[in-house]
Amino acid sequence: MSPVLVAGFASGLYYGSQSKSVRRAGFRTGAVGSIPVLWTSVDFVSSEILASLDSLAFVVAVGTLWFVFAMIVNALGAALCAMAGGWVSRTVSGSA
User: Fold this and answer.
1) pLDDT tens for residues 4-50?
2) Which of 12, 25, 48, 83 sits CB 3.0–4.6 Å from 59 for a disulfide?
3) Interior CA angle at 72 toward 17 and 57, to 5°?
4) How far apart, in Å, do the first and last CA atoms of the chain sit?
């Protein structure tokens, strides 16, 4: 998650002059940065592919929920880091 947060901070530095764009850019950065979590979810589901149908349905549901949860947490965390980066950008440039 830390690379996603650093990328969110960097997007905040880049979009520092526009506060609304900073949150949006950070959220998008976090959402895109959390896509590798999908691989973990797919690996989790594929490890149980030969299980019974009930167990497989449970594993697919848990894998999907985990991916959605991780994506939301990463996106919100990156948005917060982007707002911090935007604040730093405005403070350093003197436009605060």
Assistant:
1) 888 888 888 888 766 668 888 888 888 888 888 888 878 877 877 77
2) 48
3) 160
4) 29
Distance, CA of 84 to CA of 68 (rounded, Å) = 24
* Confidence band of 69 (pLDDT split at 50, 70, 90): very high
CA 19/CA 92 separation, integer angstroms: 15
Phi and psi for 5 in degrees, rounded to 5? -65, -40
Instruction: Say if residues 47 and 63 touch (Cβ distance below 8 Å).
Output: no
**Helix intervals (H) in the chain:** 2-14, 19-33, 37-47, 53-93
Contact 92, 17 (CB under 8 A): no
Q: Please check whether residue 7 is in contact with residue 50, taking contact to mean a CB–CB distance below 8 angstroms.
A: no
CA dist 96 and 86 (Å) reads 10
